[in-house]
Amino acid sequence: MRSSLVLWPSFFFCCYWACLSFNVSLVCGDYVHCLAQQKILLLQFKKILKFNPADSSKLLLWNENSPCNEWRGVSWDEEGHVAGLDLSEESISGGLDNSNALFSLHYLKHLNLAFNNFNSVIPSRIKDLKSLTSLNLSNAGFVEQIPMEIAQLTRLTILDLSTSYYLGVSSLKLENPNLVTLVQNLSEVRELYLDGINIALQGNKWGHALSSFLPHLKVLSMSSCNLSGPIDSSMKNLQNLSIIRLERNNMSAPVPSFFAKFSNLTHLDLSSCNLRGRFPNNIFQVQSLTSLDLSYNYGLQGSLRELPQNGSLQTLILSATSFSGALPPSIRNLWKLSKLDISACQFNGTLPDSMLDLPELTYLDLSYNNFTGTIPSFGMAKKLIHIDLSQNNLNGGVSSAHFKGLVKLVSINLQDNSLNGSIPRSLFSLPLLQSTQFSNNLFQGHMDAISNVSSSMLQVLDLSHNNLRGPIPQFIFHLRGLKVLQLSSNKFNGTIRLDMFERLQNLTTLDLSNNNLSIDANIKDANRSSFPSITSLMLASCNLRQFPGFLRNMSGLTKLDLSNNKIAEKIPRWIWELGYLGQLNLSHNLLQEIETIPYNLSSYSKLYVLDLHDNYLQGTLSVFPTLASYLDYSFNKFSSVIPPDIGNSLSFTIFLSLSHNALYERIPLSICNVSNLQVLDLSYNNLSGVIPQCLAKSETLGVLNLGKNNLSGNIPDTFPPSCVLKTLDLSSNNLEGPLPKSLSNCTTLQVLDIGKNKIKDQFPCLLKTIPTLRVAVLRRSNFYGPIGCPKMKRMTWKMLQIVDLAFNNFNGTLPGRIFPTWKAMMLDRNQTASKAHQLDFSFFGSSDHYHKRSGNDLG
Question: What are the helix and strand counts (H, E) for the chain?
């Protein structure tokens, strides 16, 4: 025993001597060896790197006084060389070039620099790391061409150069050298990740390169690489493939059937590849397949006729494809299925009861299909978290049995169906349910009283657009966690006191619009901060006769809709002082005046939507929030000039309507400074002078309506080649001269109304190249000559539905050959009635309807 104790000091002395003699650091407790020279190289590497110490969890711990085992991100081989380096997510922003000591770590096998921001090219000295077997430079901020030198790393088994593909632009490219040159010496590679790199090769070139030079490939990930198809048949030689990710490339071809012969295939992602043709059904039979994503291939057809016994599929995503047919009873075979998304397809039929036999199902989206019949009970799917059955033709009520036992259910979306009956009260007893969306159905009747809901976790309750009636159920006021409550467009009735909602302290969105309710807005203590968390309040059509006083205390309000009420007061000054208010709709009221604002509204208002249309507002037009993108002051009684500097106040405006007022004098030239304007409606006023040439020059305007004014002069001949006009209405003015030739640049024009002017010109053959034209009104002007274009054998206006040439000076015979070419005027025999009487053009939620003129409007 004594001799053993004597030996221990000798052992430690030998260890110490070895460290001094061979420059080796030995930490006996953890058995970590590291050569001192290797530590020096790492410290030199760190010294010239640029990184944020506050965000570093690895580099910050490297220093010459700390032992090797405390250098995070570094692994060592048995001889003390650096074998692995993981500096991913270290907030490195630069310092890696060919002079860096990193490239002297010749024993390095694993290098991971992912998720940094080097903002430089990949150094060519990467070739010096010849021992590398895995290289991960993904999302590290490297730019431009991938260097040829990576092809010299012939021991690589894993290569990841993937990068983010932001707004269709790749920061890395593989052009010269191209993919063929890169991989021709990398025969040991098993996993290849090149996502987001601009490779831009055709299918035969990239497919042949992979199959010829990477025979052992197991993982292929090349999404968003600007690849084109078809997928080359030589790819069938890669029998070891288990993961294939080629999403967001333009294959423009069918899915190859040889994928079904990959016996190890587990993941196949071909989403957003512009695939077409019929999907090979035998791919569903691959027993190893766990994930299949074919979404957003609108031309890809297929069905789910027979699904394999004991299939391994856990994720099946077919959304936004042309898959069709019924869901088969064999859906039960996918007993491991966790996520099923077949939304926006063409599936039909009833939902099979076999869906009850999917015990692992957590996410189910069947929205935007043609499913009919009743909803099966999902009571056996106890792990279900999300259901979306919206936009189908499902009917029948939803009973308590449908969701009985789904104690883990978190979200239900059944909106936009034809469901009827009553809302099942059992939903409110599901302990984990957070979101219930039943809008746009046929639910009706009174809602039953429900007790003991105070422990409910419900955060979203959307029952809007149904036929629910009676008073608002009292149990709703006890859903303490509720954040979003939408009850609009029902038949709820009675008087409701708004202070009843004060107990819902987490409420952010409240919508009671369009019911038969009368709102009692009087709150006893209006000076205290009522509804502190509400950001969106919609009380349209609620029989309000005054502004609720408590609103002035709702400092966090971002959206307020009090439209279609009977408010006849002044618009109060304090409403502009709600510092976060972004959307305000006071339309369809009895408002007559805007209370004086003694300071500059533009300097502080955050309003980007302001709708005051259809009131009795009068006086000077003056309120223009600087950040507004949507402004509608139409159908009022404003009587003033348009402010000369209006364009300097509306830098962000997209929609501006001042129509149906009593505005006068000229259109100010500054209106052309509104560089983003897409809809401008100044019709039905008393404006005079000429049309500013800059309005015709606009490259953003889609709707320009200056009709029913006193404008004079010629129509400006300044329409640009990039014209995007869809509606041009200059009717009922005093405009003269010919039609401007540059109007032919507006190749998307749908509505042209220049009637009731003094325009003198021949039949507008200059518009013959506009195939989108649907309405052409030239009535009561000075057009003359023959109707039609003699040099044209056929007219190109196939979309034309309304043409009005009355009260002009046309002569000659009617050219009968042009009428058969106006196909949009022909009655569709598959429909019960023609829809030619009305066109609907929508811009930012506002619809302009152009109706066919009746016999009473021919004068």
Answer: 6, 60
d(Cα 634, Cα 9) in Å, to the nearest integer? Answer: 96
Residues β-bridged to residue 631: 610, 656
* DSSP SS3 for 79: coil
Q: Please tell me the chain's helix, strand, coil percentages from 3-state DSSP, rounded to the nearest 5.
A: 20, 25, 55
Tokens of 510: 């409240």
Tens of pLDDT, residue by residue over 129-183, are: 999 999 999 999 999 999 999 999 999 999 999 998 654 556 888 988 899 999 9
Q: What is the pLDDT at residue 563?
A: 96
| DSSP single-letter state for residue 762 | B
- At residue 638, the 3 state secondary structure works out as strand
Spatial contact of 184 and 156, defined as CB atoms under 8 Å apart: no
Phi, psi of 413 (to 5 degrees): -130, 105
| 686-689 β-sheet, strand order | 664-665, 686-689, 710-714, 734-736
Tokens of 723: 């014209």
Instruction: Please count the residues of the chain.
Output: 859
> Is it the case that residue 9 has pLDDT exceeding 60?
no
Measured distance CA(708)–CA(206) in Å, rounded: 62
SS3 223: coil
DSSP 451: -
Element (H, E) at 158: strand 158-160
pLDDT at residue 503, rounded to an integer: 83
Given the DSSP bridges, would you call strands 411-413 and 609-611 parallel, antiparallel or unpaired?
unpaired
Q: Which residues pair with 301 in a beta bridge?
A: 278, 322
- CA-nearest of 48, 43, 49, 82 to 63 is 43
Phi-psi region for residue 788, left (φ > 0), alpha (ψ -120 to 50) or beta?
A: left
Q: Map residue 393 onto helix, strand or coil.
A: strand
Please, how many CA atoms are within 13 Å of residue 816, restricted to the half-sphere of its CB? 0
Among 357, 355, 470, 354, residue whose Cα is nearest residue 423: 470
Using only C-alpha atoms, the chain has a radius of gyration, in whole angstroms, of 35
pLDDT tens digits, residue range 251-300? 999 999 999 999 999 999 999 999 999 999 999 999 999 999 999 999 99
The amino acid sitting at 531 is F
> Cα–Cα distance between 218 and 212 in angstroms, integer?
14
Closest to 759 (Cα-Cα) out of 741, 742, 783: 783
What digits encode the pLDDT tens for the residues 560-602?
Answer: 999 999 999 899 988 888 888 999 999 999 999 998 775 666 5
Q: Is the dihedral of CA 208, 209, 210, 212 positive or negative?
A: positive
- Is residue 163 within 8 A of residue 144, CB to CB? The reply is no
Contact of 543 with 563, CB cutoff 8 Å: no
- What pLDDT was estimated at residue 310? 82
Backbone phi, psi, residue 199, to 5°: -100, -40
Could you count the other beta carbons within 10 Å of the beta carbon of residue 596? 8
689 touches 667 (CB < 8 A): yes
Q: How far from chain centre, in Å, is Cα 349?
A: 30
What is the C-alpha to C-alpha distance for residues 159 and 498, in angstroms, rounded to an integer? 62
Coil, strand or helix: which one is 335? Answer: coil
Torsion of CA 379, 384, 390, 393, to 10 degrees: -30
Q: How far is CA 687 from CA 706, 725, 739, in A?
A: 9, 22, 21
How many whole angstroms separate alpha carbon 315 and alpha carbon 712? 65
What is the spatial distance between Cα 49 and Cα 247, in angstroms, rounded to a whole number? Answer: 35
Handedness of CA 577, 578, 581, 583 (dihedral sign): negative
Is residue 526 over pLDDT 70? no
**Mean pLDDT lowest for which of 30-39, 52-61, 223-232, 539-548?**
30-39
Torsion angle of C-alpha atoms 689, 693, 699, 702, degrees rounded to 10: 30
* Neighbouring residues of 600: CB distance < 8 A, sequence distance ≥ 6: none
- Which of 425, 516, 418, 428 lies closest to 470 in space, CA to CA? 516
Q: What is the pTM of this model?
A: 0.72
| Secondary-structure class of domain 577-857 per CATH | alpha beta
